[in-house]
Predict the 3D structure of the following.
Amino acid sequence: MIQSLPGFKDILPAEIRKWQFVENICRDIFESFGYQEIRFPVLEKAQLFSRSVGNDTDIVQKEMYTFKDKGDQSVTLRPEGTACVVRALIQHNLIYKGMHKFYYVAPMFRYERPQRGRLREFHHLGVEAFGDPSPYVDAEIMEINMEILKKLNVDVRVEINNIGCKKCRPLYIKVLKEYLMEKKGLLCEDCQRRLNTNPLRVLDCKKESCRKVTASAPSILDYVCNECKNHFNEVQRLLTKMKVDFVVNDKIVRGLDYYTSFVFEIISDRLGAQGTVSAGGRYNDLVEELGGSPTPACGFAAGEERIIELFDYKEDDRFVDAVVVPVGKDAMDFSFFLTENLRKEYIRSEFISSGSLKSALRKANRWKAKWVLIIGEDEMKEDMVSLRDLERSVQKKVKVKDVISVIRRGLDE
RNA sequence: GUGAGUAUAGCUCAGAGGUAGAGCACCAGGUUGUGGCCCUGGUGGUCGUGGGUUCAAGUCCCACUACUCACCCCA
């Protein structure tokens, strides 16, 4: 048997309504905030991500689907959307055309070991806002998140942090590294390694021994520049005014290098080890770094699979409204074309071409159909159909020309 | 990349060395043209794959593969 690849999942009809439900809610909210949909290619030049996400990040180092195409060019299946949007923004000069806020609903790819809440192909619901450095944009981004989670009635917690910018963060990293070096012996093996590769990551370690060390480590909040500090304070003020429950967690470290100052994570405790439902922040330097003119920006992405796991949704498993059943050979053609006419009226219909009436009714019942149209010798003679309402278990004969309007009325009830 | 757990019917699972099972689902009949509930019957399995031990392996041993969870890391 040929199976799907590990970490790649089929989304089957039984769950598709749930996906559509989430996507529709998000689209409506994004658009009400003035965001426009953008679609970008699945495949990009590899360097787009090494230059934006950061060459030393795990995403680029070990998680990307990167390969040479037939033209010997190094290409990558997108691991995230922000870099793609920024590329499109620059390439098409979108910001000069008056477009500055975008959203996307798109699959992403990362070569990781699959586990609960983590797949190799997964779906991001993301938005990006360009051109405005003000904390009101950050607040807007948070508002969008809260709006989605409220509509889906999902219980989460919000953690925020200020991770500084390219001016002030290097200073903090230097201080942190010095502090950690002194306590190196108390850190776990991984963290001793991280000391050199990425000292900020030590803050994120969940091991008890390391947490003890990092608990009294210098906080980034004391080292950020005035600009970052003021921005972060303003965002906090707005969040409080918006009645968003948040905690400042100065241990949050995002796995992507492009973030500046405000970052956030929205976390659920009901998702196992991978609890981050949505995350994002400000990235004021990225557009310039990718060759555009300096443009501040802020955005986020939510994991669709993780959101879907969080809320209950009652499936409407009816996918057929009416089942047309000919009884006897003479009714076949007539029934077939009657089915066609129902379909032209957008009444979801199935034509039963074989089997007993009993089995046809069983099928109709299993499909949760509302109507069964039974057409046999008698009905043909009288130019009528026997219209059975499966929900009420009542049946009556209806003139063929009236069938559609009767069904219509019944479905609207 | 590392560790642990799991693998028997479409699904959920029992079976601990001696003929492959149950519930649900599916199909048919009980009603010459009537679903759900009920009753009766039926279809369906190279017991993940390959090797080994044994008179005999779904069961014991080894290897592999897949899935799941966790680490790393992330949405």
